[in-house]
Protein backbone atom coordinates (compact mmCIF):
# COMPACT_ATOMS: atom_id res chain seq x y z
CA UNK A 1 0.00 0.00 0.00
CA UNK A 2 1.32 3.44 -0.90
CA UNK A 3 2.21 5.79 1.93
CA UNK A 4 -0.69 8.00 2.90
CA UNK A 5 -0.31 11.73 2.32
CA UNK A 6 0.09 13.63 5.57
CA UNK A 7 1.78 16.95 4.76
CA UNK A 8 -1.19 19.15 5.76
CA UNK A 9 -1.86 17.20 8.96
CA UNK A 10 1.81 17.51 9.95
CA UNK A 11 1.76 21.24 9.27
CA UNK A 12 -1.46 21.68 11.21
CA UNK A 13 -0.03 19.68 14.12
CA UNK A 14 3.11 21.82 14.16
CA UNK A 15 0.96 24.94 14.39
CA UNK A 16 -1.38 23.36 16.96
CA UNK A 17 1.42 22.77 19.48
CA UNK A 18 2.17 26.50 19.27
CA UNK A 19 -1.43 27.33 20.13
CA UNK A 20 -2.47 24.77 22.76
CA UNK A 21 -0.62 22.38 25.12
CA UNK A 22 0.25 19.16 23.32
CA UNK A 23 -1.63 20.40 20.27
CA UNK A 24 -4.91 19.05 21.63
CA UNK A 25 -7.88 20.40 23.60
CA UNK A 26 -8.62 17.16 25.48
CA UNK A 27 -5.95 15.00 27.09
CA UNK A 28 -7.65 11.87 25.77
CA UNK A 29 -6.31 12.87 22.34
CA UNK A 30 -2.69 12.99 23.47
CA UNK A 31 -2.37 9.23 23.07
CA UNK A 32 -3.71 8.93 19.52
CA UNK A 33 -2.19 9.62 16.09
CA UNK A 34 -2.14 13.29 15.11
CA UNK A 35 -4.63 13.41 12.27
CA UNK A 36 -6.54 16.58 11.36
CA UNK A 37 -9.96 15.89 9.90
CA UNK A 38 -11.89 18.14 7.56
CA UNK A 39 -15.22 16.35 7.49
CA UNK A 40 -17.19 13.26 8.37
CA UNK A 41 -20.32 11.71 6.92
CA UNK A 42 -22.00 8.51 7.97
CA UNK A 43 -19.32 6.03 9.05
CA UNK A 44 -16.47 7.77 7.18
CA UNK A 45 -13.94 10.50 7.89
CA UNK A 46 -11.72 12.53 5.53
CA UNK A 47 -8.56 14.20 6.75
CA UNK A 48 -6.89 17.43 5.67
CA UNK A 49 -4.81 15.51 3.12
CA UNK A 50 -7.82 13.83 1.48
CA UNK A 51 -7.33 10.37 3.02
CA UNK A 52 -10.46 8.45 3.97
CA UNK A 53 -11.02 6.37 7.10
CA UNK A 54 -13.73 3.93 8.06
CA UNK A 55 -14.61 5.17 11.53
CA UNK A 56 -15.14 2.89 14.52
CA UNK A 57 -14.37 5.54 17.14
CA UNK A 58 -17.29 7.85 16.28
CA UNK A 59 -15.93 10.84 18.16
CA UNK A 60 -15.47 8.63 21.29
CA UNK A 61 -19.06 7.40 20.89
CA UNK A 62 -21.45 10.34 20.29
CA UNK A 63 -21.98 9.75 16.56
CA UNK A 64 -24.26 6.77 17.11
CA UNK A 65 -26.31 7.73 14.05
CA UNK A 66 -23.15 8.40 12.04
CA UNK A 67 -21.50 11.72 11.30
CA UNK A 68 -23.61 14.69 10.20
CA UNK A 69 -26.95 12.88 10.23
CA UNK A 70 -29.30 14.84 7.99
CA UNK A 71 -32.25 14.92 10.41
CA UNK A 72 -30.12 16.18 13.29
CA UNK A 73 -28.37 18.80 11.15
CA UNK A 74 -31.69 20.05 9.76
CA UNK A 75 -33.27 20.27 13.23
CA UNK A 76 -30.32 22.08 14.81
CA UNK A 77 -30.01 24.50 11.87
CA UNK A 78 -33.71 25.41 12.05
CA UNK A 79 -33.57 25.82 15.83
CA UNK A 80 -30.47 28.02 15.79
CA UNK A 81 -32.12 30.42 13.37
CA UNK A 82 -34.53 31.24 16.22
CA UNK A 83 -31.79 31.80 18.78
CA UNK A 84 -29.50 29.68 20.92
CA UNK A 85 -29.61 30.66 24.61
CA UNK A 86 -32.33 32.84 26.16
CA UNK A 87 -31.61 32.79 29.89
CA UNK A 88 -35.08 31.30 30.29
CA UNK A 89 -37.11 28.34 29.14
CA UNK A 90 -37.94 27.71 25.49
CA UNK A 91 -40.54 25.72 23.61
CA UNK A 92 -38.27 22.81 22.59
CA UNK A 93 -37.43 21.79 26.17
CA UNK A 94 -40.68 19.96 26.84
CA UNK A 95 -40.56 18.11 23.53
CA UNK A 96 -37.03 16.88 24.21
CA UNK A 97 -37.87 15.99 27.81
CA UNK A 98 -40.98 14.01 26.86
CA UNK A 99 -39.18 12.04 24.15
CA UNK A 100 -36.24 11.35 26.45
CA UNK A 101 -38.30 10.14 29.42
CA UNK A 102 -40.68 8.10 27.30
CA UNK A 103 -37.73 6.38 25.65
CA UNK A 104 -35.78 5.36 28.75
CA UNK A 105 -39.04 4.26 30.35
CA UNK A 106 -38.25 4.24 34.08
CA UNK A 107 -37.61 7.85 35.14
CA UNK A 108 -40.04 10.68 35.97
CA UNK A 109 -37.84 13.74 35.59
CA UNK A 110 -34.80 14.84 33.58
CA UNK A 111 -32.27 17.67 33.77
CA UNK A 112 -30.38 18.46 30.56
CA UNK A 113 -26.82 19.75 30.76
CA UNK A 114 -23.68 19.87 28.61
CA UNK A 115 -21.26 17.12 29.64
CA UNK A 116 -21.28 13.74 31.33
CA UNK A 117 -18.73 15.03 33.84
CA UNK A 118 -21.16 17.75 34.92
CA UNK A 119 -24.13 15.39 35.10
CA UNK A 120 -22.19 12.91 37.24
CA UNK A 121 -21.39 15.70 39.68
CA UNK A 122 -25.06 16.65 39.87
CA UNK A 123 -25.99 13.03 40.55
CA UNK A 124 -23.47 12.68 43.37
CA UNK A 125 -24.53 15.96 44.96
CA UNK A 126 -28.17 14.94 44.79
CA UNK A 127 -27.46 11.53 46.34
CA UNK A 128 -25.68 13.15 49.26
CA UNK A 129 -28.54 15.58 49.78
CA UNK A 130 -31.21 12.88 49.67
CA UNK A 131 -29.42 10.44 51.98
CA UNK A 132 -27.60 12.84 54.28
CA UNK A 133 -24.49 10.69 53.82
CA UNK A 134 -21.10 11.41 52.24
CA UNK A 135 -19.37 8.22 51.08
CA UNK A 136 -19.54 7.04 47.47
CA UNK A 137 -18.76 3.47 46.39
CA UNK A 138 -17.06 3.29 43.00
CA UNK A 139 -15.22 0.73 40.90
CA UNK A 140 -11.74 0.37 39.41
CA UNK A 141 -11.58 1.31 35.75
CA UNK A 142 -14.94 3.11 35.71
CA UNK A 143 -14.86 6.70 34.49
CA UNK A 144 -17.10 9.44 35.84
CA UNK A 145 -15.32 12.55 34.60
CA UNK A 146 -12.02 14.35 35.06
CA UNK A 147 -12.73 16.41 38.21
CA UNK A 148 -10.74 15.97 41.41
CA UNK A 149 -13.37 14.05 43.36
CA UNK A 150 -13.87 11.35 40.73
CA UNK A 151 -10.69 10.94 38.65
CA UNK A 152 -8.76 7.85 39.73
CA UNK A 153 -6.18 5.40 38.46
CA UNK A 154 -5.08 2.05 39.82
CA UNK A 155 -1.42 1.04 39.72
CA UNK A 156 -0.28 -2.31 41.16
CA UNK A 157 -3.57 -2.65 42.99
CA UNK A 158 -3.36 0.79 44.63
CA UNK A 159 -5.92 3.42 43.61
CA UNK A 160 -5.32 7.14 43.88
CA UNK A 161 -5.31 10.45 41.99
CA UNK A 162 -4.73 10.24 38.25
CA UNK A 163 -3.35 13.72 37.59
CA UNK A 164 -0.69 16.08 38.82
CA UNK A 165 -2.34 18.95 40.65
CA UNK A 166 -5.28 16.82 41.69
CA UNK A 167 -6.42 17.40 45.26
CA UNK A 168 -6.01 13.93 46.75
CA UNK A 169 -8.16 14.62 49.81
CA UNK A 170 -11.20 15.00 47.54
CA UNK A 171 -11.04 11.23 47.05
CA UNK A 172 -11.41 10.67 50.79
CA UNK A 173 -15.14 10.01 50.39
CA UNK A 174 -14.57 7.38 47.69
CA UNK A 175 -14.63 3.67 48.52
CA UNK A 176 -13.20 1.86 45.52
CA UNK A 177 -13.92 -1.78 44.76
CA UNK A 178 -13.46 -4.25 41.94
CA UNK A 179 -16.23 -4.65 39.35
CA UNK A 180 -18.32 -7.84 39.25
CA UNK A 181 -17.60 -8.74 42.87
CA UNK A 182 -20.97 -8.56 44.61
CA UNK A 183 -19.67 -10.09 47.81
CA UNK A 184 -17.07 -7.38 48.24
CA UNK A 185 -19.81 -4.78 47.87
CA UNK A 186 -22.01 -6.63 50.35
CA UNK A 187 -19.18 -6.73 52.88
CA UNK A 188 -18.47 -3.00 52.63
CA UNK A 189 -22.13 -2.08 52.91
CA UNK A 190 -22.57 -4.40 55.89
CA UNK A 191 -19.77 -2.55 57.66
CA UNK A 192 -20.21 1.01 56.43
CA UNK A 193 -23.64 1.18 54.80
CA UNK A 194 -24.83 3.98 57.09
CA UNK A 195 -22.12 6.23 55.59
CA UNK A 196 -22.76 5.44 51.92
CA UNK A 197 -24.82 7.92 49.90
CA UNK A 198 -24.52 6.14 46.56
CA UNK A 199 -23.04 3.35 44.52
CA UNK A 200 -22.08 4.66 41.08
CA UNK A 201 -20.94 2.48 38.20
CA UNK A 202 -20.92 1.99 34.47
CA UNK A 203 -23.47 -0.86 34.18
CA UNK A 204 -21.30 -2.17 31.34
CA UNK A 205 -17.68 -1.13 31.78
CA UNK A 206 -17.22 0.62 28.42
CA UNK A 207 -14.46 3.12 29.14
CA UNK A 208 -12.08 0.30 30.01
CA UNK A 209 -12.33 -3.05 28.29
CA UNK A 210 -16.01 -3.30 27.31
CA UNK A 211 -16.52 -5.57 30.33
CA UNK A 212 -20.02 -6.96 30.82
CA UNK A 213 -21.64 -7.49 34.21
CA UNK A 214 -21.72 -11.15 35.13
CA UNK A 215 -25.15 -12.74 35.39
CA UNK A 216 -27.01 -11.48 38.43
CA UNK A 217 -24.40 -8.88 39.41
CA UNK A 218 -26.40 -5.73 38.68
CA UNK A 219 -29.50 -7.28 40.25
CA UNK A 220 -27.49 -7.96 43.42
CA UNK A 221 -26.09 -4.41 43.44
CA UNK A 222 -29.67 -3.13 43.17
CA UNK A 223 -30.77 -5.31 46.11
CA UNK A 224 -27.86 -4.21 48.28
CA UNK A 225 -28.44 -0.51 47.60
CA UNK A 226 -32.10 -0.86 48.50
CA UNK A 227 -31.27 -2.84 51.65
CA UNK A 228 -28.78 -0.25 52.91
CA UNK A 229 -30.54 2.91 51.76
CA UNK A 230 -27.86 3.92 49.25
CA UNK A 231 -28.82 5.40 45.90
CA UNK A 232 -27.85 3.39 42.82
CA UNK A 233 -26.45 5.60 40.05
CA UNK A 234 -25.90 4.23 36.57
CA UNK A 235 -23.35 6.16 34.53
CA UNK A 236 -24.92 5.58 31.10
CA UNK A 237 -22.94 8.26 29.29
CA UNK A 238 -21.78 5.56 26.85
CA UNK A 239 -24.39 2.82 27.26
CA UNK A 240 -27.45 5.07 27.19
CA UNK A 241 -29.39 4.84 23.90
CA UNK A 242 -26.56 2.65 22.54
CA UNK A 243 -27.21 -0.76 24.13
CA UNK A 244 -30.96 -0.27 23.66
CA UNK A 245 -33.37 2.65 23.40
CA UNK A 246 -33.64 2.42 27.18
CA UNK A 247 -29.90 1.90 27.59
CA UNK A 248 -28.30 -0.55 29.98
CA UNK A 249 -31.25 -0.32 32.36
CA UNK A 250 -33.40 -1.87 29.63
CA UNK A 251 -30.74 -4.25 28.32
CA UNK A 252 -29.94 -5.74 31.73
CA UNK A 253 -33.36 -5.31 33.35
CA UNK A 254 -32.18 -3.29 36.37
CA UNK A 255 -33.60 0.10 37.37
CA UNK A 256 -31.31 2.63 39.08
CA UNK A 257 -32.36 5.51 41.29
CA UNK A 258 -30.50 8.01 39.13
CA UNK A 259 -28.78 7.71 35.76
CA UNK A 260 -26.51 9.92 33.70
CA UNK A 261 -26.72 9.95 29.89
CA UNK A 262 -24.76 11.52 27.04
CA UNK A 263 -23.07 10.78 23.72
CA UNK A 264 -25.58 8.69 21.69
CA UNK A 265 -28.63 10.66 22.82
CA UNK A 266 -28.07 13.73 20.64
CA UNK A 267 -26.57 12.64 17.33
CA UNK A 268 -23.13 14.10 18.02
CA UNK A 269 -24.26 17.30 19.75
CA UNK A 270 -22.71 18.04 23.21
CA UNK A 271 -25.62 17.19 25.50
CA UNK A 272 -25.88 15.16 28.70
CA UNK A 273 -28.74 14.43 31.06
CA UNK A 274 -29.49 13.31 34.59
CA UNK A 275 -32.69 11.33 35.06
CA UNK A 276 -34.45 9.97 38.13
CA UNK A 277 -37.67 9.51 40.05
CA UNK A 278 -39.78 12.57 40.83
CA UNK A 279 -39.18 12.68 44.59
CA UNK A 280 -35.38 12.88 44.70
CA UNK A 281 -35.18 15.00 41.54
CA UNK A 282 -37.53 17.54 43.18
CA UNK A 283 -34.64 18.58 45.41
CA UNK A 284 -33.18 20.46 42.42
CA UNK A 285 -36.19 22.75 42.62
CA UNK A 286 -35.66 23.23 46.36
CA UNK A 287 -32.24 23.16 48.02
CA UNK A 288 -29.80 21.35 45.68
CA UNK A 289 -28.00 23.60 43.20
CA UNK A 290 -27.47 22.50 39.60
CA UNK A 291 -26.84 25.35 37.19
CA UNK A 292 -25.40 26.08 33.77
CA UNK A 293 -25.80 28.81 31.18
CA UNK A 294 -25.86 26.35 28.28
CA UNK A 295 -28.01 23.67 29.94
CA UNK A 296 -30.98 22.75 27.70
CA UNK A 297 -29.93 25.24 25.03
CA UNK A 298 -32.11 25.53 21.93
CA UNK A 299 -29.79 23.55 19.61
CA UNK A 300 -29.17 20.93 22.31
CA UNK A 301 -32.87 20.21 22.74
CA UNK A 302 -33.38 20.19 18.97
CA UNK A 303 -30.58 17.64 18.64
CA UNK A 304 -31.99 15.44 21.40
CA UNK A 305 -35.47 15.47 19.86
CA UNK A 306 -34.19 14.76 16.36
CA UNK A 307 -31.81 11.96 17.37
CA UNK A 308 -34.29 10.19 19.64
CA UNK A 309 -37.02 10.49 17.02
CA UNK A 310 -34.77 8.71 14.51
CA UNK A 311 -33.97 6.00 17.05
CA UNK A 312 -37.68 5.47 17.74
CA UNK A 313 -38.95 5.63 14.16
CA UNK A 314 -36.05 3.79 12.50
CA UNK A 315 -34.60 1.58 15.26
CA UNK A 316 -31.04 0.62 14.27
CA UNK A 317 -30.42 -1.85 17.06
CA UNK A 318 -30.91 -5.09 15.13
CA UNK A 319 -28.74 -3.84 12.26
CA UNK A 320 -26.02 -2.77 14.70
CA UNK A 321 -26.22 -6.13 16.46
CA UNK A 322 -25.76 -7.95 13.15
CA UNK A 323 -22.98 -5.69 11.87
CA UNK A 324 -21.10 -5.73 15.16
CA UNK A 325 -21.35 -9.52 15.44
CA UNK A 326 -19.98 -10.00 11.92
CA UNK A 327 -17.23 -7.49 12.61
CA UNK A 328 -16.20 -9.17 15.87
CA UNK A 329 -16.16 -12.57 14.14
CA UNK A 330 -14.11 -11.11 11.28
CA UNK A 331 -11.56 -9.61 13.67
CA UNK A 332 -11.17 -12.92 15.47
CA UNK A 333 -10.68 -14.75 12.16
CA UNK A 334 -8.03 -12.28 11.03
CA UNK A 335 -6.25 -12.71 14.34
CA UNK A 336 -6.20 -16.47 13.80
CA UNK A 337 -5.13 -16.10 10.16
CA UNK A 338 -2.16 -13.99 11.22
CA UNK A 339 -1.40 -16.22 14.22
CA UNK A 340 -1.98 -13.38 16.66
CA UNK A 341 -3.48 -13.64 20.19
CA UNK A 342 -6.15 -11.09 19.29
CA UNK A 343 -8.92 -10.81 21.86
CA UNK A 344 -12.35 -9.35 21.10
CA UNK A 345 -14.79 -8.86 23.97
CA UNK A 346 -18.01 -6.97 24.59
CA UNK A 347 -21.29 -6.37 22.79
CA UNK A 348 -21.71 -5.74 19.06
CA UNK A 349 -22.49 -2.06 19.69
CA UNK A 350 -19.37 -1.52 21.81
CA UNK A 351 -16.50 -3.96 22.15
CA UNK A 352 -12.82 -4.08 23.06
CA UNK A 353 -9.91 -5.35 20.97
CA UNK A 354 -6.58 -6.26 22.51
CA UNK A 355 -3.87 -8.86 22.82
CA UNK A 356 -3.57 -11.54 25.48
CA UNK A 357 -3.44 -15.24 26.13
CA UNK A 358 -6.44 -17.25 27.28
CA UNK A 359 -9.95 -17.63 25.99
CA UNK A 360 -11.98 -16.60 29.04
CA UNK A 361 -13.61 -13.17 29.23
CA UNK A 362 -12.09 -10.37 31.29
CA UNK A 363 -14.30 -9.67 34.30
CA UNK A 364 -12.69 -6.62 35.95
CA UNK A 365 -10.03 -3.94 35.65
CA UNK A 366 -7.31 -6.15 37.08
CA UNK A 367 -8.01 -8.68 34.34
CA UNK A 368 -7.90 -5.95 31.73
CA UNK A 369 -4.51 -4.63 32.85
CA UNK A 370 -3.13 -8.18 32.69
CA UNK A 371 -3.57 -8.04 28.88
CA UNK A 372 -0.89 -6.69 26.56
CA UNK A 373 -2.51 -3.29 26.14
CA UNK A 374 0.67 -1.65 24.87
CA UNK A 375 0.89 -4.07 21.95
CA UNK A 376 -2.55 -3.04 20.73
CA UNK A 377 -1.80 0.67 21.26
CA UNK A 378 1.36 0.23 19.17
CA UNK A 379 -0.74 -1.37 16.40
CA UNK A 380 -3.20 1.52 16.17
CA UNK A 381 -0.94 3.92 14.20
CA UNK A 382 -0.57 1.17 11.59
CA UNK A 383 -4.36 0.79 11.48
CA UNK A 384 -4.68 4.55 11.01
CA UNK A 385 -2.13 4.46 8.21
CA UNK A 386 -4.38 1.89 6.51
CA UNK A 387 -7.52 4.00 6.88
CA UNK A 388 -9.10 2.60 10.07
CA UNK A 389 -9.94 5.17 12.74
CA UNK A 390 -10.00 3.58 16.22
CA UNK A 391 -8.84 4.39 19.74
CA UNK A 392 -5.50 3.20 21.19
CA UNK A 393 -7.32 2.04 24.33
CA UNK A 394 -9.07 -0.70 22.35
CA UNK A 395 -12.73 0.35 22.28
CA UNK A 396 -14.61 -0.06 18.96
CA UNK A 397 -18.04 1.53 18.46
CA UNK A 398 -20.59 0.53 15.82
CA UNK A 399 -23.09 3.08 14.50
CA UNK A 400 -26.37 3.03 12.63
CA UNK A 401 -24.41 4.17 9.56
CA UNK A 402 -22.17 1.09 9.36
CA UNK A 403 -23.14 -1.38 6.67
CA UNK A 404 -21.76 -4.00 4.31
CA UNK A 405 -19.38 -1.65 2.50
CA UNK A 406 -17.82 -0.50 5.77
CA UNK A 407 -17.47 -4.09 6.96
CA UNK A 408 -15.72 -5.11 3.76
CA UNK A 409 -13.46 -2.05 3.90
CA UNK A 410 -12.40 -2.46 7.52
CA UNK A 411 -11.62 -6.18 7.23
CA UNK A 412 -9.60 -5.68 4.02
CA UNK A 413 -7.72 -2.78 5.55
CA UNK A 414 -7.11 -4.62 8.82
CA UNK A 415 -5.75 -7.63 6.94
CA UNK A 416 -3.31 -5.34 5.11
CA UNK A 417 -2.37 -3.56 8.34
CA UNK A 418 -1.60 -6.83 10.15
CA UNK A 419 0.53 -7.94 7.20
CA UNK A 420 2.40 -4.62 7.36
CA UNK A 421 2.89 -5.03 11.12
CA UNK A 422 4.35 -8.52 10.59
CA UNK A 423 6.87 -7.10 8.13
CA UNK A 424 7.89 -4.48 10.65
The secondary-structure class comes to alpha/beta
Beta strands, count:
16
Overall structural domain count? 2
* CATH superfamily membership of the largest domain: Type I PLP-dependent aspartate aminotransferase-like (Major domain)
Helix content: 25-40%
Largest sheet: 7 strands, mixed
Distance between the amino and carboxyl termini: 14 Å
Overall geometry comes to globular
Instruction: Give start-end ranges of low-pLDDT stretches.
Output: none
Strand content: 15-25%
Text of the CATH class of the largest domain = Alpha Beta
The strand line-up of the biggest sheet is 4-12-11-10-9-5-8
| Overall average residue pLDDT | 96
* CATH architectural name of the largest domain: 3-Layer(aba) Sandwich
Condensed summary:
This protein has 424 residues and is of the alpha/beta class.
List the helices and strands and how they pair.
Layout: H1 7-19, E1 37-41, E2 44-47, E3 52-55, H2 70-80, H3 92-104, E4 109-113, H4 116-131, E5 135-139, E6 152-155, E7 158-161, E8 174-177, H5 182-192, E9 196-201, H6 217-228, E10 231-236, H7 247-252, E11 258-261, E12 272-276, H8 278-281, H9 298-313, H10 317-337, E13 342-347, E14 350-355, H11 365-369, H12 373-385, E15 388-389, E16 395-397, H13 404-423
Parallel strand pairs: 3-15, 5-8, 5-9, 9-10, 10-11
Antiparallel strand pairs: 1-2, 2-3, 4-12, 6-7, 11-12, 13-14, 14-16
